[in-house]
Each structure stands twice: as structure tokens, then as C-alpha cells.
Amino acid sequence: MHAYRAIDPIFATSVGVAAAVVRINREEKEKGRSTEQSIESFKRRVNMVMEKSGEEGKVAAGGEKK
């Protein structure tokens, strides 16, 4: 019974991520974008978030912003 307790959050997270991917893909198709265009858009957004979080980390650590 204990194994299920460990697997439940992993399963729930994967179902949530899959649902988000399906919804985003459907919305992108409604906008007339191909799957490749949607993936490129997603990559750009992830890169922007990662760059922004990296800059915030430098400021928080006492470094200077670019």
C-alpha cells in the first residue's frame, strides 16, 4: 500500500502536464500554427524564463544585472 502513496503525486503531475500539453496544442492549432511552430514558441518562452530567473539570481546574490 505504501508504494501507491509514493506513485500518486508522480502520476497526478504527469496527468496534469499531459493535459496542459494537449490544451496548449489545441489552442495553437486553432490559431493556425503547426506543431513545429508551437514547439519553437515554447522553447523561446522557456529560454526567456530561464534567462530572467538567472538574472534575478545574480541580483539576489549581490551581482550586477546585465
Automatic annotation (TrEMBL):
<protein>
    <submittedName>
        <fullName>Uncharacterized protein</fullName>
    </submittedName>
</protein>
<dbReference type="Pfam" id="PF11654">
    <property type="entry name" value="NCE101"/>
</dbReference>
<dbReference type="InterPro" id="IPR024242">
    <property type="entry name" value="NCE101"/>
</dbReference>
<dbReference type="GO" id="GO:0009306">
    <property type="term" value="P:protein secretion"/>
</dbReference>
